[in-house]
Amino acid sequence: MTSRMTSLQDRSRQAVWHPCTQMARLDAVPPLPIAHGEGPWLFDTDGNRYFDANSSWWVNLFGHSDKPLHDAIKAQLDTLPHVMLAGCTHEPAVRLAERLSARTGGALGHVFFGSDGASAVEIALKQSFHSWKNRGHADKREFVCLKNSYHGETLGALSVTDVQVFRDAYDPLLLRSHIVASPDGRLGNEAEALAAMRALLAERYASIACVIVEPLVQGAAGMVMYSPGYLKGLRELTREFGVHLIADEIAVGCGRTGSFFAWEQSQADWPDFLLLSKGITGGTMALSLVLTTDDVFAAFWSEDVTRGFLHSHSYTGNPLACAAANAVLDRFDAGQLDANRAQAERLTRAFAPLSSRVSHLRQRGMILAFDVPEAPPRFAEAFHLKAREHELLIRPIGSTVYLMPPYLIDDATAAFLAGAVTATLNDVLA
Ligand SMILES: *Cc1c(COP(=O)(O)O)cnc(C)c1O
After folding, report:
1. Angle ∠(226,229,231) on CA atoms, nearest 5
2. Which of 286, 306, 333 is the last residue in one of the domains?
3. Domain total of the chain
4. Pocket of ligand 1 (CB under 6 A)
5. Which residues are tagged with the site Participates in the substrate recognition with KAPA and in a stacking interaction with the adenine ring of SAM (predicted)?
6. CATH code at 366?
7. Does the pLDDT of residue 31 top 90, yes or no?
8. Which of 23, 142, 158, 375 is the most buried (most CB within 10 A)?
9. What CATH number did the domain enclosing 273 receive?
10. 0.90 cut: is pTM over it?
11. Which pLDDT tens digit goes with each residue over 136-152?
12. Smallest CA separation from ligand 1 atom 5, residue
């Protein structure tokens, strides 16, 4: 009896254009028709369950149907679901901005609201350029990103993204950015990467507005991890040459790497911009935030309207999303980072036995990844399909398998995950 399941799949094929999907592969890889979620588990319309090992594209922090989160949204729904943030303000947005600012010790005390990660990237790029322009440096209009970086897929964000499959088709449309060698802990090349950045900034700083970076982990590149020392070096270089630094914490923020902001581990001065999205609402509402400094903010302060930052989105500062984000911050105020440390150790222990079979088993907090040597063609697709048979929802990137699970890892869960990943690997490589 698979009628309900197949009928939803058929209707979806007809009417829904799925993201990040070659629709012609939908017959080979039919979308799972998900009926509901509970904790780390997703249930399909036939009642089969799957562990959401990638937190539904890295957004879900506390599992599905989290009661405190849902209660916060429901309470806000009955009070004020939405009001525009130009000409009006409201408690959930103000409180969220204050709390995030406090988490940077006030260094990033001005918060602009966006709708999703890509819009946060657009906002930061525009603010960086416009603030230089307002200060009489209109020539500082070039952007710098790292090799294999991912910052989203709208045209501006794609201009600072270096993932070929997403970028190449649109290359003629994109802004010309500088793409600089990136650090990779597997290669131990942090010093060379900083030297390459120094060479570029020394030559072009007068034309460069900002450098954008994914702190500690380049996610879409295949969970490429590198040392916090690189960030400290990058902060020093961008200060030396008078260039803004944007920390894109859309994926790595909210406790994912062991600290609330991944940046904290660098022990460097704060960046000029810090971006949050994905986990900030725990996988419930679309929201992003751009945090910036007094200095950037001051560049827009004028009686002249056109020197202001006139950017907006219809749902800017949506109260429901802000209420969800405030409920997420409540969890961190109540010790979530300590819980994460214990959970990360459980993952380390459970996956240790795999290290002899795979290469570069690596981990940064609640992100664990490894590479599969000599992976067969279409490995990611095959692994994803086989994993479903082991109650696991997971989407490798190329030949890199990674877990970025909800913060709900007890000993049994860690053992289940290691067992399911190992069994899937055995199936796929058999
Ligand atoms: C996901 C992601 C984005 C884009 O966010 P969307 O909400 O998908 O637009 C930008 N930067 C990083 C590092 C991301 O992981």
Report:
1. 80
2. 333
3. 2
4. 116-118, 121, 150-152, 214, 219, 248, 250-251, 277-278
5. 20
6. 3.90.1150.10
7. yes
8. 158
9. 3.40.640.10
10. yes
11. 999 999 999 999 999 99
12. 117
